[in-house]
Design goal:
Layout lengths: L11 H6 L1 H16 L10 E2 L1 H15 L3 H4 L5 H17 L2 E2 L4 H30 L7 H26 L4 H6 L7 E2 L20 H14 L6 E2 L2 H29 L1
Length: about 260
């Protein structure tokens, strides 16, 4: 049984015969008041947002013309689908199980996805600089947009995988210092501006990646650690270069 405030009730006999239980409940209640939800252990994040993002990246890569993704057009979908299977097989619906080899394999697959998308972007940029490749403005914009959006998803996955040690470490509450300061972390609990049990999830990192790629700078989420600042700086530089070249070439084709 719980009280109206959510604190477990302690029966009379429990208070009489087991005073340590009373003390434990009191400690839990104080912790809930003093320690924010994003610092406490919980059951783990839902896996489906990550799986949907990976499948969307596969669709975006399938849209790219053969000239941009040659000669290994099949490699990106295969790597992404292997990552999907790995997450489902290991974690199921919630990501909460500690496994160093799963994390290492996930990071290796994510690095492969990053390299493949960078290679596609590099081929597109080289064609643009040499005035070769795609000559149709709508196709050029769609190709550049697909690479750009895939880049957003991949950087969102990097942020999600490394902030406070990754999703499993965040679920266990083992790491205190965040790499990203979300607005909800600075809200006063008494003002009720954020949900009482708010915690950063994959969509929050994806949103951070999207705004960084569109504004070319942090917006509402601030990087706190050096690796986060360097990664966001790299993403902004790549997004800016890709946007400038693609838009400039498309406008020139239209003229």
């Amino acid at each position: 049984m719980t009280s109206p405030t959510g604190t477990p009730r302690v029966r009379f006999w429990d208070r009489l015969l087991n005073p340590s239980r009373v003390f434990g409940v009191a400690v839990d209640a104080v912790q809930d008041e003093l320690v924010p939800a994003w610092r406490r252990a919980y059951e783990g994040e839902l896996a489906w947002p990550v799986l949907v993002a990976l499948l969307l990246a596969v669709v975006l890569q399938a849209m790219l013309p053969g000239r941009v993704v040659r000669p290994l057009r099949w490699l990106f979908p295969v790597v992404a689908l292997v990552l999907v299977v790995l997450i489902v097989a290991r974690h199921g619906t919630r990501i909460h199980k500690v496994s160093p080899w799963v994390r290492a394999t996930t990071l290796l697959l994510l690095a492969a996805l990053s390299g493949l998308n960078i290679a596609a972007g590099a081929r597109l940029v080289i064609d643009l600089l040499r005035s070769r490749g795609i000559h149709d403005a709508p196709d050029l914009l769609l190709t550049g947009g697909a690479i750009w959006l895939t880049n957003v998803i991949i950087f969102g996955l990097w942020y999600w995988m490394f902030d406070r040690g990754g999703p499993v470490a965040r679920a266990t509450g083992s790491t205190a210092y965040p790499a990203f300061l979300f607005p909800q972390m600075t809200c006063d609990p008494q003002q009720n501006l954020a949900k009482p049990n708010w915690r950063p999830e994959f969509f929050d990192y994806l949103y951070t990646s999207f705004t960084n790629a569109t504004a070319f700078s942090p917006t509402d989420t601030m990087p706190m650690l050096q690796w986060a600042k360097l990664t966001m700086m790299l993403q902004s530089a790549v997004a800016l270069l890709l946007a400038i070249l693609v838009i400039a070439r498309a406008v020139n084709v239209l003229k």
